[in-house]
Amino acid sequence: METLTNLATRRSWRADKLSHLGSSIFAEVAKWKQEALQAGKQVIDLGIGSPDRGPSISIREHLSSEVLKEDNYSYPGTTGTAEFRDQCAAWMSYRFGVQVNPDTEILALMGSQDGLSHLAQAICNPGDIAIVPDPGYPIYTGSLAIAGVTPWLVPLKEEQGFLPDLNSIPEDVWERAVFILLNIPGNPAAAQADLPFFEALVDKAKKHGVLIVHDMAYSELVFDGGRSLSVLQVHGAKDVAVELHSFSKSFNMAGCRIGFLTGNPEAVASLREFKDNIDYGVFKPIQSAAAAALKEAMAGAEAGNEAASLYESRRDVLVAALAEAGWEVQKPCATMFLWAKLPPAFLQRDQPWSSRRFARELLLKTGVAVIPGDAFGSEGEGFVRIALVQEEQVLREAARRIGSFLNEFA
């Protein structure tokens, strides 16, 4: 008979589901960066999409004053403060013309990833299926692994503008799915959709009783005079849809961890009930600062527009510099990323380079860090994601180094 000591020795204290969370590539790229640094390279990190600037001075001053108030240090509560929820509802009306009830149709989140990582556990049972995009943000499938939910991957193709073909999803999948998750504008592949697309989506969802989960983390980072649409703008969409909004990118508040879920009251209530058991909400001063950010946007001092202008300018600089270096990359219509197909010389050879090999070799040879596309799903193979999170002169230097790399290996 084995002793308890022997049993403990051979037991693994690591859940198998951790292997399905999709974040391992980011740890792997971090190791590559260490290798490059040890080899004497000066690293230009265009990997993680973390804003390199902070929020406006007025938002920071507001946060500072709220932090000094003694009564802001009690448990904040999961739902969110009335001030925050009321301002989110007012912003939804101002920005999209959508009316939502702040008491039953808005829930404060610790960033949109909080909602994305927990929603499946709140609305699904183990063995259910959900429709998610490929390529897509890693937590989309990671959250399903945690919840015991099976993903049905809908491919996002370049020839379709990286929008899902709703009619390509089999009827039996629609019938069995609990929810469909979309991200428009998208990460890693930017996409824009018109109202007829969302109307068709709502019609499908109503026909089959599927919840639409729309991740709008990049709603305000749209370029060339465009404006993103909310799925909740479709008449009757609240019957079958929820939407996640974030302050991380639009207001440069990534470290604050603040966002909100809005839409269908039953789904909102389910996530609220789940979160009631695992956290105590977002620090009150941060909620107040986020409400102040929305007030600024509604007053015309639109931090979101300023962020969009910043990333649009960086997009133009980097795309032009890469073209000069010999790499033609499609201009994204939104977000803070280039979704760049590998240069033809790396794909059209007897043994084509994988996106992972390209990203690793590029980093070790030049110090420029990008994320291989397969980190976002099998449809991401042959692409890399490049984050526009450095100043323009640094982006030009990155393009120069990339050009030298292309000349050496292409």
Structure description:
- The protein is an alpha/beta fold.
- Helices cover 42% and strands 13% of the residues.
- It has 14 helices and 12 strands.
- It has helices spanning 4-10, 24-38, 57-67, 82-96, 112-123, 139-147, 171-176, 195-208, 265-276, 284-298, 303-325, 344-347, 355-366, 392-409, and strands spanning 44-45, 106-109, 129-134, 150-155, 177-183, 211-215, 241-246, 259-263, 337-341, 368-369, 371-372, 383-387.
- The chain has a 7-stranded mixed β-sheet, with helices on both faces.
- Helix 8 (195-208) links the parallel strand 5 (177-183) and strand 6.
- Helix 2 (24-38) packs parallel to helix 13 (355-366).
Quick gist of this model?
With 410 residues, the protein is α/β, with parallel strands linked by helices. It has helices at residues 4-10, 24-38, 57-67, 82-96, 112-123, 139-147, 171-176, 195-208, 265-276, 284-298, 303-325, 344-347, 355-366, 392-409, and strands at 44-45, 106-109, 129-134, 150-155, 177-183, 211-215, 241-246, 259-263, 337-341, 368-369, 371-372, 383-387. Helix 6 links the parallel strand 3 and strand 4.
Rg (CA only)? 22 Å
Integer average pLDDT:
94
Q: For the report, how would you describe the main beta sheet?
A: 7 strands, mixed
N/C terminus separation: 61 Å
| Percent in helix | 40-55%
Coarse morphology: globular
How are the strands ordered across the major sheet?
Answer: 2-8-7-6-5-3-4
Q: What is the percentage of strand-forming residues?
A: 5-15%
User: Can you count the beta strands?
Assistant: 12
Q: Could you name the ranges where pLDDT drops below 50 across 5 or more consecutive residues?
A: none
